[in-house]
Amino acid sequence: MQLDLNLLTALDALLEEGSVAGAAERLHVTAPAMSRSLGRIRKATGDQILVRTGRSMVPTSRALAMRAQVHALVQQAHHLLSAQQELELTSLDRVFTVRWHDALTAACGTALITAVHRRAPGVRLRLSAEPGTDDAELRRGEVDLESSSGPPALPDVRHRLVGSDRLVVAVRPGHPLTEGPLSIERYAAAEHLTVSRRGSLRDPIDDALTTRGLERRVVAAGPTAAFALQLAHDTDLVVTVPDAVTRAARDQLGLATLPLPLPLPEVPLYLLWHQRYDDDRAHAWLRDLATETVRALFAPPAASQQPLTDPTGQ
């Protein structure tokens, strides 16, 4: 059935004003035009809606029953099609799914949940485990905000650089590598552990060593940074991890941290979201809050309270 939703606006005005002339004046149309709308409403509903009693018109019983619902529908339509209102965090009721690398979740998850709950108590966060897939979940709306070490390949996925991290070497206290300067040869000769959710036993460090004629022995791959750091604590295995996002975990375990004896570039950290959320004020608030929370990891203590800035302009 073909429906003219403009009839809802006309019906709302007729029920509010109780007359064709009053409804016409309210909607800035002529009385004949409003009379024609009333005729179409009567045909669509099978009800007279307004009936004449003396010089006035009164609503039918069905019209009285539907008046509140019609008014609510019209108000909802106006809300949906009007410009976004100011964001009211205290009344915001929404669920966001945030998919971050496990080390980033461990480092910032508590701070993000605390900040969100304090400012918007009606917002709920899902901190999702990072799977070994691409950005399709962002496109499908299954993930609201994601972390990545590189910009997205998909043109409709936005990105924001929030920091960059250097790699460091983590070993148990008293490990042989802590005795004396750590040379590239001593580093390569040790037994290593990689962090890979796919179980990869090779990463860019191996490529960098190969160019120098060296090769390390990777004896295990751990699925998360937390597992790898615990294994490094319990064994003589060496794990190479990003410094800032694992600092708290390393300190908690009492691990020794050594500089990586390889001139590798820092690892960038991006936040990703789908372009459908560009003008979503609630989502913009969340990604700004997440950006502020993550950047606190990379800021010196004195700079941790500086205003939020975004070098990418997003």
Key structural traits:
314 residues, single chain, 12 strands, alpha/beta, rod-shaped, 5-stranded mixed sheet
Query: What summary fits the major beta sheet?
Result: 5 strands, mixed
In DSSP terms (H or I, runs of 4 or more residues), the helix count works out at 11
Instruction: Characterize the quaternary organization of these chains.
Output: single chain
Distance between the termini: 44 Å
Order of strands, widest sheet: 4-3-5-12-6
**Low-pLDDT segments, ≥5 res:** 303-314
Structural class: alpha/beta
**Average pLDDT:** 88
- Portion of residues in beta strands equals 15-25%
> Whole-number radius of gyration?
31 Å
Number of strands: 12
Overall geometry comes to rod-shaped
How much helical structure, as a percent, in the residues?
40-55%
SSE topology string: HHHEEHEHEHEEEHEHEHEHEEH
Summarize it.
The chain is of the alpha/beta class and 314 residues long.
Report on the structure:
With about 325 residues, the chain is α/β, with parallel strands linked by helices. About 40% of the residues lie in helices and about 20% in strands. The strands form three sheets. It has a five-stranded mixed sheet with strand order 4-3-5-12-6. Residues about 305-314 have low confidence and may be disordered.
What's the SSE blueprint?
Layout: H1 6-17, H2 20-27, H3 31-45, E1 50-53, E2 56-59, H4 61-81, E3 94-99, H5 102-119, E4 123-128, H6 136-140, E5 145-148, E6 157-165, E7 167-171, H7 184-189, E8 191-195, H8 204-210, E9 217-222, H9 225-234, E10 238-242, H10 243-253, E11 256-259, E12 267-274, H11 281-298
Parallel strand pairs: 3-4, 3-5, 8-9, 8-10
Antiparallel strand pairs: 1-2, 5-12, 6-12, 7-10, 7-11
Helix pairs in contact: 1-2, 1-3, 1-4, 2-3, 5-10, 5-11, 9-10
